[in-house]
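Duplicate of #3305? Posting structure anyway:
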């Protein structure tokens, strides 16, 4: 099972620059990063709706909305920010630098979330190995960007 998760993560990572490139091309045609991000989310929403329908699964929003804190519902806005940022960045700094820099940001935030066990993540303390990994990652970002 672990192997399947590793493969899923690698494939998802491989598709990130592809998605950014496709969305950047769309932004050229429809005149803007925000309209392109909107279309990307609209198509993604339609696809997920079809998947839910195929699985005969519903989304109990009316029951879940009053039962959860407001901030549980902001994930989509974070995704919208990320997709819009990649639409802006991809054609300007290239796929390699865009992914390297977003990965650096993801690693920093991930280690903070782990260290403080936030949002349900397991507690994984920040230690010398993680510091070394961060420094090496930042060195890689520098080398890819320069």
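Output from current build:
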């Amino acid at each position: 099972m672990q192997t399947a998760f590793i493969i899923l993560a690698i494939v998802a990572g491989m598709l990130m620059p592809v998605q950014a490139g496709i969305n950047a091309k769309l932004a050229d045609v429809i005149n803007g990063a925000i309209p392109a991000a909107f279309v990307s989310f609209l198509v993604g929403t339609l696809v997920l709706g079809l998947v839910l329908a195929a699985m005969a699964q519903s989304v109990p929003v009316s029951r879940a909305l009053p039962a959860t804190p407001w901030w549980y519902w902001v994930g989509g806005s974070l995704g919208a920010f990320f997709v819009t940022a990649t639409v802006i960045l991809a054609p300007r700094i290239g796929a390699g630098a865009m992914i390297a820099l977003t990965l650096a940001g993801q690693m920093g935030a991930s280690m903070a979330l782990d260290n403080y066990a936030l949002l349900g993540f397991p507690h994984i303390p920040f230690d010398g190995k993680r510091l070394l990994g961060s420094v090496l990652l930042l060195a890689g970002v520098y080398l890819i960007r320069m």
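Confirmed duplicate; merging threads. The longest helix spans residues 2-30. Helices lie at 2-30, 33-54, 61-64, 75-93, 95-115, 128-145.
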